[in-house]
Amino acid sequence: MSWLWHTLVRSVWIGLVLFPMWVAYVVPWIRWRRFGATIPDAVWERKHRKYAARFYRLAVGMRGGLIKVGQILSTRVDLMPRAWIEELSGLQDEVSPTPWRDLEEHLRAGYDAPLEELFRELDHEAIAAASFGQVHRGVTADGTRIALKIRYADIERKLAVDMFLMSWAVRLFNVFLPKIRLSPIYDEIKRALTTELDYEQEARFTQIVHDHFVDRDGVEVPAVVHALSTRDVICTTWIDGVKITSPKLLDDPRLDRAKLLERLLWAWIQMMYVDGVFQSDPHPGNLLARLDEDGEPILGVVDFGQVKILDRAFHQKLVNGVMAFAMGNVDMFLGSLVDIGLFPESEKDRMRPIVSELMEHLRGADPMGGGQLDFAALRMRVLETIDRMEGVAIPQELVLYGRTFALLAGVTRSIAPDVNALAIARPLVTQALLAGGPPEDPMQRAG
Fold first, then answer.
1. What digits encode the pLDDT tens for the residues 115-147?
2. Residues 175 and 311 in one domain
């Protein structure tokens, strides 16, 4: 009966936020569309700020899937008002951990033997907590140091409630974007969240990426301890290190920041352009670093709940776009955007002046020539351009690809703000592309 009560309370709470929000938007929208009323931009801006903040508080308060939904919405610069993007970009997948007493029974139920026989040590204090689960440090019976990622017992039910309510919200809010069907985007969000909830698949991805890096110096990816991993638990070997942006690390006089940055960039270039299986959530909480006994930086990559498969076909489309941009060929670049799925062939003429203007501006910033880029200004210019591209919906895989680059850009600025990351990345990318790109089926080779 308790789960039914909590489900009802959750549904009512979310509904009491989303429905008044819809009413607040639909009334002035109808006045504008049906009766020709003029709604000042300042009015819309106030609404965006107010309700973005309200959704932010709802997501933080409800936990579950709503934080993830907010994070994904913050990447949809093609759909969401800029005020929403800015507000929701602050959502971090860090929540207060569930007390051990509320987690222990669920953990014990997943094993055939008592915890005391399986683990020599198991910390009751979580070292990290997120929307879907939390991580505890331990030592196995044979002395192996491990990290135990435990999925919350009620998270599937919470996510089911959240997705049901979001499906209705999509229908209601689609009225404001009549040229775009939001249902496929909702399907992509649901698929992404369901995938992240699949701990068995995350364990497979973790092991695949570990195998790709097992012989690579300077980069560590945990191995899966299969005997202690279940449907609700991922057990991996322990990775030593602190958060990559930790002052303790960055203030160490022995640290070669440029070398750490090079290892970070090469890790993702290898995953994306050579292996075709990459972690798409490189925020500082998923990146660890330490100095070895010789003072060499060692990068650790953890948490493979958000992984993207980049096959050779899509990779080639992206390469074609980069080549067209580098040559300044507007027609070729427009064609590559059509191939990627940004807009249909029939829209090329309408998009030509907008894309041409953006290309001219970006090439003037010299992103291919090695100069330092103002990423904040660049992002703002892209947002302004997308605002003008009415009716365009960015494919979700391209959103994840761009988000990965944006997160990496933020980390590189934190690690080495005075080092030219593009100059470091250029020869690495060239080397990776000369290797032929990812395989036709990255998962087949990985398996």
1. 999 999 999 999 988 888 999 999 999 999 999
2. no
Domain-terminating residue out of 196, 224, 258: 196
Q: What is the 3-state secondary structure (H, E, C) of 146-206?
A: EEEEEECCCHHHHHHHHHHHHHHHHHHHHHHCCCCCCHHHHHHHHHHHHHHHCHHHHHHHH
Question: How does 222-250 read in b/e, with b if 16+ C-beta sit within 10 Å?
Answer: bbbbeebbbebbbbbbbbebeebbeeebb
Indicate the average pLDDT of the chain: 84
Q: Could you give phi then psi for residue 279, rounded to 5 degrees?
A: -75, 120
162 lies in the same domain as 47: yes
Q: Write out the two tokens for 180.
A: 């775009």
**324 and 414 belong to one structural domain:** yes
The verdict on 269 and 415 lying in the same domain is yes
- Residue 146 to residue 155: CA distance in whole angstroms: 24
Provide the number of structural domains found in the chain.
Answer: 2
Side-chain-side CA neighbours of 163 within 13 Å: the count stands at 17
Task: State pLDDT tens for residues 256-305.
Answer: 999 999 999 999 999 988 898 999 889 888 999 999 999 999 999 999 98
Give the C-alpha separation, 386 to 382, whole Å. Answer: 6
Q: Are 160 and 250 in a shared domain?
A: no
Whether the Cβ atoms of residue 306 and residue 269 lie closer than 8 Å to each other: no
The boundaries of the domain holding residue 435 are 241-447
CA distance 148 to 126: 10
What lies within 8 Å, CB to CB, of 136 at 6+ separation is 122, 123, 124, 125, 126, 127, 147, 148, 150
- 132 lies in a domain? no
Whether 140 is in a domain gets the answer no
Tens digits of per-residue pLDDT, 335-384?
888 888 777 888 888 888 888 887 887 666 554 444 455 555 666 666 66
224 contacts 104 by C-beta, under 8 angstroms: no
CA dist., res. 332 & res. 320, Å (int) = 8
Cβ neighbours of 116 (radius 10 Å): 9
Residues 189 and 334 in one domain: no
Distance, first Cα to last Cα, the chain: 44
In a domain, 288, yes or no: yes
175 and 313 assigned to the same domain: no
Assess contact for 393 and 340: CB atoms under 8 A: no
- Please tell me the distance from the alpha carbon of residue 392 to that of residue 229, in angstroms, as a whole number: 42
Domain membership flag for residue 98: no
Whether 160 and 308 map to the same domain: the answer is no
